[in-house]
Here is the input.
Amino acid sequence: MTPENKQTLNTSGTSGTRLQFDWSWVSNNGGVIALIVILAFNVIVTPNFLNPQTLFVNISQVATIAIVAVGMTLVIATGGIDLSVGAVMALAGAMAPLIFTSPFAEANPQIGLVLSIVVPVLVALLCGAFNGFMVSYLNVQPIVATLIFFISGRGIALVLTNGNLQTFTNPEFSYLGTGKILGFPFQGYLVLLIAVVVWWVVNQTVFGRQLLAVGGNEKAARLSGVPVKRVKIGAYVICAGLSGMAGLIVVAINSASDAARIGNLMELDAIAAAVVGGALLQGGKAPIFGAILGAVIIQLVKYTLLANGVADEVALIAKAGIIVTAVYLQQARKE
Amino acid sequence: MTDLIEMSGICKAFAGVVALQDAQLHLKPGEVHAVIGQNGAGKSTLIKILTGVYRKDSGSVKINGSETGISTPREAQDAGIATIYQELSLVPLRSVTENVMMGYEPRTKLGLIDWQRAHLQAEKTLKRFGVDIDVRAQLGTYSTAIQQLVAIARAASMKAQVVIMDEATSSLDDQEIDILFRVVRELKKQGVAILYISHFLDELYQICDRVTIMRDGQTVGQHVVSETTKLGLISEMLGRDPEEIEAAGMTGLGGEKRNQPGEVLLEADEISTGHGLKDVTVSVRKGEIVGLGGLLGAGRTEVARALFGLDALRKGKITHRDGPDRISNPAHAIEAGIGFLTEDRKREGIIPHMSVRENMTLALLPRLRKFGGVDRKREQELVGSFICSLGIKTASMEQPIRELSGGNQQKVLLARWLALDPRLLILDEPTRGVDVGAKFEIQSIIRDYVEKGLGVLLISSEFEELVEGADRIVVLQDGHSVTELENPGVTEERLIAAIAHHYERGAA
Amino acid sequence: MLDTSAFDLRRYLQGSTHSIGVWIALVILILFGLLRYENFGGAYNISSFLNYNAMFIVISVGMCFVILTGGIDLSVGSVAAFTSVVAAYLSPYGIQIALPGAVAAGLAIGGLNAFFVVAMRIPPFIATLATMLGAKGGALVISGAQTISIDWESNFTKMGLEKAFGVLPWTIVITFVLVVALWIVLEKTSLGRTVLAVGGGEDASIMMGLSVTKAKIFVYTLSGGCAGLAGVFLASGFGAGQPLEGVGWELSAIASVVVGGTLLTGGLGSVPATVAGALLLGLVFNILNFENGRGVISLSAYWQMVIRGAFLFVVIVFQSRVASSSKEGTV
Here is the structure.
């Protein structure tokens, strides 16, 4: 497109659309509409949908996707992508039980508990720093840079646990996955807290503004004094840290850790949630609550299909449909 | 003689907004025909309809007197229309041969591409234009001028009847332009018609036979070039009286009173970088404009990059008053009170998705920090006052910057740096691609700030801007600073002479 | 005069440095293997190595074409799983039906990718992510999430076992023919050159009057077809349709392409170097197996993942340095 017609396009937003139905409204609010449709469908069709138990199940299921999707949204906002989130989840998830079942932690349960949360998250942050370093200092394309941990991260987790399923009983640790506050699952609160904090960071802080600037036009951002490399590393570090936390939650929910399965295909769910939530793949936008909404939609579709006796496999196809539709609408809005 | 191309009554609207209305174009065989007009006048749209990139809403396009319905670039090429776009429409990663022959490669008997013959043909075609290069090498490894000539060679090898050159000279230096013009004359001799689109009116008088003037999507005039005056063309482009323009002066940089320059802000002493600078010496004082003169490729932008900490010094020293010893990245430079308005607004300036407000405060952000967040209130006050004082035309400070016109975008970017309250501002082609009205305003703003004590390093390809605006002009050549001219007393002729004189000596 | 003297050694090298690393590494690994392990150069090892890696070579070459246009195809693993099931179901009718049938299924899914990318303008990353999920779901649905054994009475199983013309297994022969054919397509036909031009600059290609649409439809369909063929190899190699296989194959394929020196942004790369990349990644496994076989150290399969990641890291770092040094020489 030439600058000329870009300008003409933009000034025309309101004039040319009077006669036809305003599709832009649908695509701008597609996520919310989809959510309402799914909820309405479930209230009418799915047995026991309004049961609190259903709500709890869905909250605990959606929490991990939502947390990772928030991190993914930040990375996508820089124009990058992080394929390693699932592997980082596995790594963090595999480490936690190793730590609190170690002899030292058996002797000092309090310290052990703290360490079993702090150390895996720290390791996850390191993975993120590595990804960020590769992307910003070595100029490796994000898909390739994060491919390294995608392959080897889970490998390290499997090596650490020797590929064994680790089961445990540790009520304190399991609180992360099964605890309740005022009757609602703990991780539901955690998701909200994370979302609010990250939203604040994106919209109200210097780092957030710089993040969006890097995604919007990296060259211009650098010339305006934005520390592009640091900002990018920051995005990958936050994303990996959140993934690590999600890994801990998965382990806590199951009271078991299987390095081969934790966070499997999570990168796809997280990317899908971010995109459904309105993140632009070319960067420059970070709709945090959009990502949460995206995660909820994906989870609800999965649940709806399962609860109505549709096989798991078909749910995958449905997910594919959602992704295509969401991006198609996003694309149509742009043109 | 029938027109080779006759476009008449062309209308085109984008999503309801009119870009072309009853536009005309008549091109005769073997003539060089210029199309001029301000940004947004509809030149590019008209050309892109001719080349099948856009579809016209109504009107007729006739080639050799018969109506045609070209709807893809390929059809245009097959009809003998070749286009050399401003942003080169070549593939730098591929070889020269591929770029010349792409889509028309010679085949072997098996129907496979015969690379041997393709290379030979490409070589032969290029030699006709005096270009003797290794055609197997990647195109991207050659200079822009060579790439431009490759694009023309492609057009020639396709036996085009019409060659359209869209801002073909905007990135060439004088010598290269000479070679380009030679090629244009050569093509003309062969009966090829050339449609020449340019911002540089001087070029028109050098090679064009006729000129079509566009304004607001309409064709407002068609003349034989030798019967026009520069002032007349400008007045027709702008739709204003010639006297009015003359009275206003050509630029807004020439202030009534000139400051007595203050203390030295920055002094670069015999600096060299890995990007072609050799022993450049330049200094800027408080309240003065120092111009950097020279041809494209002489190292003007490179000086700016070195001062702004983008390219590391290999030799020499930059001394700042009250500043740090060494500036190694833009953030340092900004802290030291230096701003850098870059040449390429779209690629190095604006963040298109972001609002006017966010674009304007991007460099200032670290100073707006309050309780870990951005101080919104101060930010809005500041942005509001700049929108007001620079006369930025925007619906609100929340409007995305991409929706603004080029001139207003440039003002926002200027405000990005002025907001920092800088000591020194480096301006690289601050008025390029901006319409005449905004150009004057931007120049006046710069002059105002200089009178208040700002030091400015001005890079401009327009001699008028340098001659009227700069207190001193440092002339660069092949990466060396060769002389310095002092105002008052500099005329366009003197500046050109300085550049040319030293150039000959340098080449000898 | 214009600066036309830009030819120098560095430029000459630049064209090949992107892929020279992979050839050197391949030679070193092969020499290392030959010197260290007795049976490494044996006919059995070579044949079984190539037989097993044929499917990875095939999908990598398909992926290479997609990446050359600047796109990506994440669906190849799922498509291979899907078509392995299709091939298993068709196996009673013999290889002459099962192979074209499975490849056709792959082509169809590839065509769907092309439709998403070209007609609906969905970014390739997302479009193929969707078909990846879709094909995976499809494979599970039609197989009931069970492996589908192939008909042992038919001639289908012979593919990986019986030698064509008594020399090499059919799998290897088919792979070889396909690779050579695609090499010629890329280097010697205008379709192939268009693929390269599209990746080098899509707008410029349109302006040159090249058919960008055709090139894109071609690469996605081709990649689907290659994945379809890989599914046939998978089914014949394991004796069953494997709906759960194929996880992470797209990433192995991308890794092979990148290791082979193809730019992920498109426009520059080659078929043989991609094959070398796939062989190199396969050899790392092969050598680890031999090392385990010597019994000195024992590395579990999990270690192989770690080492593969580390290996990818080294190659990428090497490439990024080569790329940045050659860039410095030209700007």
Observations:
- Chain A touches chain B through 35 residues (CB under 8 Å).
- Residues 1-19 of chain A have pLDDT under 50 and may be disordered.
- The CA atoms of residues 180 and 186 of chain A lie 5 Å apart.
- Residues 58-334 of chain A form a domain with the ABC transporter involved in vitamin B12 uptake, BtuC fold (CATH 1.10.3470).
